[in-house]
Write a structure and sequence with these properties.
Alpha-Beta Plaits, alpha+beta, 2 helices, about 120 residues
Amino acid sequence: MEESKNVWQLIYDELVKNGIDAYPPAIKNGECKAPYVMFKQAGANRLGRYSSRRDFYDFYLYVPRNRYSFLSDYEAQIKQVLDNPPLYPMIMPTGSKENDYFDDNYNAHLRILTYYNNVRDRHV
C-alpha cells in the first residue's frame, strides 16, 4: 500500500519532477551558484466559522548575484509548475509577492511568493 503524501511532499515531488532544484528549510547552505527554490509551510488561518483552515506556503526563489535579470524568468518557471495541474487548484496563489532583496548569507537575489491550500479541519 502506497503511503499518502502531505501537501508539502506533493509540491516538492512536482517541482523536482519538472527539473526545479527544490529544498526544505535549513538544508541548502553556502553561496548560491545556480537558481533554486526553498519552500516551507508558513502558518495557517481558520476560515471564518467554517470547519476549514487555510495553510500557507512561502516559496523563496534564489538566483546567483550575477543573474538578477533571470529572477523573473525563474519565477515564471516556478509558477508554471505551481499554477497548473496536478498542484492547481490544490494550492492557489495569494497574489502576495515580497520585494526582491539581496541576501548576503547566500550571495543571491531573493524573491518570495506565497500560496495557500484550504484544508478541512477535523478538530473543529
